[in-house]
UniProtKB/TrEMBL annotation:
N6-(pyridoxal phosphate)lysine: residues carrying this PTM: 39
SUPFAM superfamilies in UniProt: PLP-binding barrel (SSF51419)
Taxonomic lineage of the native organism: Bacteria, Bacillati, Actinomycetota, Actinomycetes, Mycobacteriales
Domain of life: Bacteria
GO MF term set: pyridoxal phosphate binding
Name of protein: Pyridoxal phosphate homeostasis protein
Coiled coil: none
UniProt keyword terms in alphabetical order: Pyridoxal phosphate
Taxonomic source organism: Corynebacterium callunae DSM 20147
Function: Pyridoxal 5'-phosphate (PLP)-binding protein, which is involved in PLP homeostasis.
Length: 234
């Protein structure tokens, strides 16, 4: 019971921060949702979150997420970590959404994986919500798509049979102010919205910068430690 109350209190505190940031930004209540990040935390915590009304969580590691998804099929698991091309097929078997597509090769691997998963009966939903991770500073070591390649990659995702282009994900470079990163990412997203003539999602903001992300239009805020506590050692 103590852990249940702890997680409930933490969820309430983070949600209050999101609600306050939305109010300051002049945005509608509920226009940014919380995605708890459960990497390294046990399945029991994910079960508690589900019982507390959480519908989706974020994971960074393919095998860990796959194991959790098998044991808790009612929860939506979002892949928010970098994906190796050889793991794209596996990710497509369990992910409700992928926030970290950073190349055509990954997109094609996910699409093929979706096709195989549907053929095998591993999935019943025929499309995968797909986000492009932006590389604002062009550093390939941190993952993300170079800005000049974002629109062609978005078009390829849009044309893929089993992928739905949902929006973009942004992680501010280490030496950037969050305001600068989110402002630039918002401009890119706005251009994509004009290009595709529809609203898109903006996965941006974590514990330390969620207010800035929401000010620039974030619709999905990813928070881990502030909800679940310090991650156990892997």
């Amino acid at each position: 019971m103590e852990r249940i109350q702890q997680l409930q209190d933490n969820l309430n505190k983070v949600q209050a921060r999101i609600d306050a940031a939305l109010q300051v930004a002049g945005r509608a209540p509920g226009s940014a949702v919380l995605l708890p990040v459960t990497k390294f935390h046990p399945l029991e915590d994910v079960k508690i979150l589900q019982d507390l009304g959480v519908k989706a969580v974020g994971e960074n590691r393919e095998q860990e997420a796959r194991d959790k998804a098998v044991q808790l099929p009612e929860m939506d698991f979002h892949m928010i970590g970098q994906i190796q091309s050889k793991k794209a097929n596996s990710v497509a078997r369990w992910a409700a959404a992928v926030h970290s597509i950073d190349s055509l090769k990954i997109a094609q691997g996910l699409n093929r994986g979706m096709e195989l998963a549907l053929e095998r009966g591993d999935r019943t939903i025929s499309s995968l919500q797909s986000f492009i991770q932006l590389s604002l500073d062009g550093d390939p070591a941190r993952g993300g798509t170079p800005l000049g390649e974002v629109t062609p990659l978005a078009e390829a995702i849009e044309e893929a049979t089993h992928l739905d282009f949902a929006g973009v994900m942004c992680v501010p470079p280490l030496d950037w102010e969050p305001e600068r990163a989110f402002s630039q990412a918002r401009e890119i997203l706005s251009g994509l919205e004009q290009h595709f003539d529809r609203s898109l999602e903006f996965s941006a903001g974590m514990s330390g910068d969620l207010a800035e992300a929401i000010m620039h239009g974030s619709t999905i805020v990813r928070v881990g430690t502030e909800i679940l506590g310090t991650r156990p050692l892997a």
